[in-house]
Design brief:
The chain is an all-alpha fold. α1 packs parallel to α9, α1 crosses α10 and α4 packs antiparallel against α10. The chain is globular, with a radius of gyration of 18 Å. The protein starts with a helix and ends with a helix. 57% of the residues are buried.
């Protein structure tokens, strides 16, 4: 139950962070947004260090660095994807892709589920698919470039989550600190190399900072959830973050929520209840 609640918290934080990051990337080049979000995220994790502790073992350094590289790719691809839009289609696509790999890894590592979990886990995957389903009449259709970016972002998110899960469980926030330091360095280096192509538009500082802070909290909650529960369950619950992005896109940007997506949101609620029983 603790792992489930932590995963739900992670899902909510990811959804809000993605919405703000995607919205910020519509105002300036995506790297300008990520240049603010990633260091802001690192600052939060450094502040958490004295309270949650950190052990910089070889495992924490290796897996943390790997997650950082994946995180840098996820930041850039995801915010670029959501900037192209429509968010209510592309965010669920990234969520579906990001759920598949961690589930496969968890099952290969020998994780098992009870009867309620065996029903709830596939139902949660169905919920993600329903929220991702068809465009429907009157909805904006994403371009091929946007869809490819969404698949790439989902893959990068999946790798980030898997790498964080592989880090030793007694290392505190060390994997997060290392990962975010690496991702910040990669992003700033890329921005330096592409400086002349970033344009003159000023980034949305407050929005980008908030996205970074929320992403950091989402990573922390996911790490704690994965350490106290099964990766197969935690990854699928976390992948429901697209529901938050879809609802925010509906409220703020007036993007349509299709009937299938509403069914998906209801299915997600049932799935979460079953996984709680498991």
């Amino acid at each position: 139950m603790i792992a489930l609640l932590l995963a739900l918290g992670s899902s909510l934080a990811y959804g809000c962070a993605d919405f703000l990051g995607g919205l910020g990337a519509r105002k300036a080049h995506v790297l300008r947004t990520v240049m603010i979000a990633a260091p802001a995220s690192l600052a939060v994790e450094l502040l958490l260090w004295p309270f949650l502790g950190a052990s910089f073992s070889a495992g924490a350094l290796g897996w943390g660095a790997a997650s950082g590289i994946a995180s840098a790719a996820a930041f850039a691809l995801l915010y670029r994807t959501l900037a192209i839009g429509p968010m209510n289609v592309l965010s669920p696509v990234t969520a579906l892709v990001s759920a598949v790999l961690p589930v496969a890894v968890g099952l290969l590592q020998g994780e098992h589920l009870g009867a309620a979990g065996l029903v709830g886990l596939p139902l949660a995957l169905v919920a993600v698919i329903l929220v991702s389903a068809g465009h429907g009449a009157g909805s904006a259709r994403p371009s091929r470039t946007a869809l490819l970016s969404a698949f790439g972002a989902g893959g990068a998110i999946a790798l980030q989550l898997v790498f964080l899960h592989q880090a030793p469980s007694d290392t505190g926030v060390a994997p997060l600190v290392i990962g975010r330091a690496v991702s910040s360095a990669v992003i700033l280096a890329a921005a330096g190399l592409m400086y002349r192509r970033l344009g003159s538009e000023r980034p949305a500082y407050a929005m980008s900072t908030a996205a970074g802070v929320l992403d950091s909290m989402a990573n922390l909650l996911f790490l704690l959830a994965a350490r106290s529960g099964d990766l197969t369950v935690v990854a699928v619950i976390t992948a429901l973050y697209s529901a938050g992005t879809v609802l925010l896109a509906r409220s703020v940007l007036a993007e349509r929520i299709r009937r299938g997506q509403l069914v998906g949101l209801g299915t997600a609620a049932v799935a979460v209840s079953l996984l709680a029983l498991a």
